[in-house]
């Protein structure tokens, strides 16, 4: 097919998609933040028998865009505060469009030297930004779930190798038992990774946490004293509810004294290392053996983008790599991504990370983290000043836990009311048996005005709920 015929096949559809995308982005700061349609409406609008001859591509693109207006949440909105979701920076979104356009399979260098080079550079920049051991292995995965899987696969390999067992060749049947120690506040993704790896959740030994969700280092030392054999300790940098950090230096020293592998869940908290103000929270994190984080959270690149980092690059590579006679794999300095991640065929997700780090620089990443933390403190100050509103956590990072009227039912009703209101969107949680609203500030575009408007909406909904309850009591 000639060039003159090829481009016209794409241009009209790409122009149409660009127009829809621009409209969506233009309306994003003002639009209703939550989704306004559920399963039934979406199925009614989109479900149909598989067409025998297909439909007009332009009509299909228009259909998608039209129903995204009601069926898609405005997750990239500056007033979306649910689930630690960042919005895509303009440079990250533009780079991601190029990734889809180039359609590179980033599995091995020979297929895409540009993807391999950008991921190699982005990996080096991340190690510098986080100030982690420069010899570490780095893999770009779908998210923190697979980052945990990758890091804990390396940990499984490493601790069993030291015990004289080759888990990749011989499996787990008959292998020395691996003890896995984690806080009672550990995120569920660590449990899932253990299931995937055949270690099972019953291998977990839980350590008590304090009132902010931080692992108690004294109790960790007591637990480790009772264990013999291969051991993995899982710590947390940024509790999913409070944002609190485990005492990482004490945990690191205890793990090293025991000969245990230390893995850190830094899904969003690892980015505190980029901030001069917040870096102290992660003191001692460099003592760990592996770290998992997300770029689609605080770096604000599009989904999906996670990062697995392993101090012992050979353990990382041995746990992940694969080879086949038909492949052309490097024997030199070139990077084959398949050596560092579970996937073989995958998109070049490291390119938006490269573009964003290059566009922001070290100072830009620090400013992004600092601004989100400042907006979280602003939320806490505005809401705490209201009668009947209580902040449950020490706001040390970007997480705020809010309780209304010291009442579970009232708190849940306010959360639902805020979601229906559409000014902003925040999720609910249960913290130490108390219902709470969970506010996560992770978006580059969230301004002071956004926080003021969102806090006002929360207070307005609270007043409306209390008013309706009063009316109900009077009748």
TrEMBL record:
Top-level taxon of origin: Bacteria
Listed A to Z, the keywords are: Decarboxylase, Lyase, Pyridoxal phosphate
| Cofactor list | pyridoxal 5'-phosphate
Q: Which PANTHER family match?
A: GROUP II PYRIDOXAL-5-PHOSPHATE DECARBOXYLASE, MIP05841P
> Family per UniProt?
Belongs to the group II decarboxylase family.
Descriptive protein name: Pyridoxal phosphate-dependent decarboxylase family protein
Its source organism is Lysobacter koreensis
Instruction: Name the lineage.
Output: Bacteria, Pseudomonadati, Pseudomonadota, Gammaproteobacteria, Lysobacterales
